[in-house]
Specification:
With about 475 residues, the chain is of the alpha/beta class. The chain contains 16 helices and 12 strands. It binds nicotinamide-adenine-dinucleotide (NAD).
Length: about 475
């Protein structure tokens, strides 16, 4: 018998969409309108580098413009192609809907291995790519706002913002043309950590619902849970760091490009990250067991598996052997549609990508709002808030003296209570609230509908419903 063919990433997203949309009563026309990708622009451009012209291929795909601007990262990777970019753009539409970020879905990519180029070369390539997109309004504060993704970060976003400013010299809102910028270049505190932080908040919310925890054959809290993480990049590093440092999780394995590290008592995430930065991989790290075939470590016993590297890593080939009862998709599309079926049949609970990694786009939304309002969050109200807290504390202390100093406030409480919220606190508060609300919307559907098998179908249903409402309100 021929082996079952693994669908492409975009087919996988469409299959999952179709499974969910079949449970709705939307008209076939509207179903199709929501599913399809509106447009994909392919650009091939040349840059003179190292004495010769190199041609690069890039994409910007717009999945849905039911809300504008459309939003989605720009990825630098040799895996970039039209199919991948369109799949990621579709996920962006659903992601924004789940976390109620008022954007449509988009995504971009450049077929490049960024590690092959020097910084000044990457700057030339990025500026040229941005130029091609800007002149077609595929980067624009009102229409299309990129962000970082795999292989890009705040450095690339700063180049893009500057390129836009050079081309749109009178646009006072130029900074809002891209998010994920450095804080001193119009960015917002907490954006770099946001996706990993969102993964942490998503897990915290999951563990607030004992019924859901039991569905994953787990119990208790995050404390002591064994975590395996794949990809110690932006998303994986922050998620693993926060879960181990703040929630008592034990990171028992870290899987990277060159292999994996394992340690039953828990790896020091910060130390491993430092090792990778110095040595280019995990091999040789002294305080863990090295396994050359990293992908095998996905199959290790653990409580929570966090694929945070790339798509398609849990597929028809290995799904049967995955033992984790709870998988949180920090990367986009790490579980293929076929693997999703197998895992659900095995009873695993999967917290789907379109919700799990939505922390990045949520804080990008805050950054965009900050850029349009031209003021840092908290700047106006912070001291006023502190003054009001101080009033209460002073009054309580006065009353206490009347009682003969019967009690005393701990200095720690006083200090924390008196401190007004700055930008980082406000960003974290907004992100936490968003991740809680997003999870609750999904679980409500999962828990109340007999025909909904798992959080992913529930997530699609919530997203499809919200996008459909938006189209319907426009008369479509
Ligand atoms: P990144 O480039 O910072 O990190 C990716 C990490 O994965 C790197 O450390 C890389 O070495 C590692 N890696 C690559 N291939 C691997 C393999 N085969 N096995 C093990 N490790 C491998 O990228 P990122 O921004 O952290 O993005 C990771 C995933 O999260 C992507 O799917 C991306 O679309 C998704 N995501 C990112 C953001 C964001 O804000 N950066 C937001 C939402 C979703």
């Amino acid at each position: 018998m021929a082996a079952k063919r693994e669908p492409t990433f975009r087919e996988s997203v469409d299959l999952m969409f179709n499974r969910a949309v079949a449970l709705t009563d939307l008209s076939p026309g509207l179903e199709e309108k929501i599913r399809v990708c509106n447009a994909t622009y392919t650009v091939r451009f040349g840059v003179r580098l190292r004495g010769q012209i190199h041609t690069f291929t890039g994409y910007r795909s717009v999945h849905s413009e039911h809300m504008e601007p459309v939003k989605g990262g720009i990825r630098y990777s040799m895996g970039v192609n039209q199919d991948e970019v369109e799949a990621l753009a579709a996920l962006m539409t659903y992601k924004c809907a789940i976390v109620e970020v008022p954007f449509g879905g988009s995504k971009g990519g450049l077929h490049i291995d960024p590690r092959e180029w020097e910084e000044h070369e990457l700057e030339m390539i990025t500026r040229r790519f941005a130029y091609e997109l800007i002149k077609r309004d595929l980067i624009n504060p009102a229409q299309n706002v990129p962000a970082p993704d795999m292989g890009t970060g705040e450095r690339e976003m700063a180049w893009i913002a500057d390129q836009y400013k050079r081309m749109a010299t009178t646009d006072i809102n130029y900074r809002a043309c891209v998010t994920g910028k450095p804080v001193n270049g119009g960015g917002i505190q907490g954006r770099t950590e946001a996706t990993g932080r969102g993964v942490q908040y998503a897990l915290r919310e999951f563990f607030r619902h004992p019924e859901d925890v039991a569905a994953a054959r787990l119990s208790g809290t995050l404390d002591g849970k064994r975590v395996v993480v794949q990809g110690l990049g932006n998303v994986g590093y922050h998620a693993a760091k926060f879960l181990s440092e703040e929630d008592g999780c034990k990171v028992t394995a870290i899987i990277e490009r060159d292999g994996a590290l394992m340690c039953d008592t828990g790896l020091d995430v910060e130390a491993v990250r430092g090792w990778i930065a110095r040595h280019g991989g995990v091999d040789g790290y002294p305080d863990g067991r090295y396994v050359r075939d990293g992908s095998k470590v996905l199959e290790e016993e653990c409580d929570i598996l966090i694929p945070a590297a790339m798509e398609g890593v849990i597929n028809l080939e290995n799904a049967e052997r995955i033992k984790a009862p709870l998988i949180i998709e920090a990367a986009n599309g790490p579980v293929t549609a076929g693997a999703d079926d197998i895992l659900r049949q095995k009873g695993a609970v999967i917290i789907p990508d379109m919700y799990a990694n939505a922390g990045g786009v949520t804080v990008s939304y805050f950054e965009w709002v900050k850029n349009l309002s031209h003021i840092r969050f908290g700047r106006i109200g912070r001291r006023q808030e502190e003054a009001r807290h101080e009033l209460i504390v002073k009054e309580l202390e006065r009353l206490n003296r009347g009682l003969g100093d019967a009690w005393e406030m701990s200095p720690d409480f006083k200090q924390k209570y008196l401190r007004g919220a700055g930008e980082l606190e406000l960003v974290r508060s907004g992100l936490d609230d968003t991740m809680r609300a997003g999870y609750q919307a999904m679980r409500e559907v999962w828990r109340t509908r007999q025909d909904v098998d798992g959080l992913r179908v529930a997530a699609y249903l919530v997203a499809i419903d919200r996008v459909a409402l938006s189209y319907q309100s426009k008369g479509l």
